[in-house]
Fold Long-chain fatty acid--CoA ligase.
Amino acid sequence: MARLAAALDGLGVAAGDRVGVLALNSDRYHEYLFAVPWAGAVLNPVNVRWSPQEIAFSLRDSDTRVLLVDDTFAGLVPALRADTPRLRTVIHCGDGPTPEGTLSYEDLVAGHEPVADARRGPEDLAGIFYTGGTTGRSKGVMLSHANLVASALGSAASGVFLGPGGRLLHVAPMFHLADLAAWSARCLLGGTHVILPSFTPAGMLAAVETERVTEVLLVPTMIQMLVDDPAAGDADLSSLRRVIYGASPISEAVLDRASRVLPNCEFTQAYGMTELSPVATLLSPQDHRDAVRRRSAGRAAPHSDVRIVDPEDVEVPLGEVGEIVVRGGHVMMGYWERPEETAQALRNGWMHTGDGGRMDADGYVHVVDRIKDMIISGGENVYSVEVENALAKHPGVASCAVIGVPDEEWGERVHAVVVLAAGAQVEPEELRAHVRAQIAGYKTPRSVEFVDALPMSGAGKILKRELRARHRAPEPAR
């Protein structure tokens, strides 16, 4: 760590300069997360699921001059150099031969003596973390050292996030704030990091067995893939004690299946976003045993204040739907070089999440939908998450997404996009009847579309903007 920081110094990296990493999870990623702040520089973990054009945009936008790449992404270097003229140095952090035009990670570390920690201050910029772009162009979220520590300390202090001395498995991508939250808390509390390059059900099952993993952070799509894997029932998962999940909603059906496959595990849900470093609320294992509370996102974490407000930022009565807003030491510094969007998001001292939700009398936050994803059909508000939960309870549904599509009669109609479970044969009307039996008729999908897979972001979120684009009316000829 201190040797890598020295190498960065030797390459001309100055205080505040951005250093990127484009790599799968590894021990070198772990070292990068420590070494860049040690050198006084700024982290820029790159989304490994982006296209080369999107990666180049983030490097240009943040003016990243030094980039670490592993074997998986070394082939992109020529194109990235061509699209990012100010990228001056590429460090190869893989195990294969060092590609031409790049520097060897291990040679750099071996060739430098350790340097002292630059000791950046709490309010200094720690990293620029790009949003997944699920609703539009990706933005660089500026998080300070104080932001990251506040979220990690508050989450750890809750007593329901991670415990002291555990063995944490990293299978969620380390570029994402969800995994970074767990990484930070485990570093603060002490313990062991077990790192896999990426998630596969087989890889996770083997790692839990051989490394006696005690805790893991997963996104709901990973949980679904794990519990659907036939090998999960035969694996020795007795060491696993806690599953933390978040980043996107989880259906009750998937959660029920996960509880059966992992009967010795406690589940903790973390709700938040990149702009909140990332944790805002936590749903404890005890709350998961309550039929009503388990459908919520939990209560404010110790470091977080949460309110529900109307469009004029007036707090709404308990039980009414409004926008979820958050304040605390974990709220971002702002969006990189986007002052207008920063001012819009951080109005009146609160981070406006863009999520619609309500709060009950006990302070539990119920997320109903992204405000942009809310469907208005025939003058009625329909929250896609509610419809998706109803659909997911059908045994023939593997995964689903609900969107609003243009409709001449209703303005928007509720449209379901469904991936069927292996071997399942289900007709649209059967799914519609299944949903109608659980929720109001006007919320029932008026149309159903079957697909082989849903478009996903690098963080495992369904890209509803891509689904909506398929149904957008073509632009009139000019």
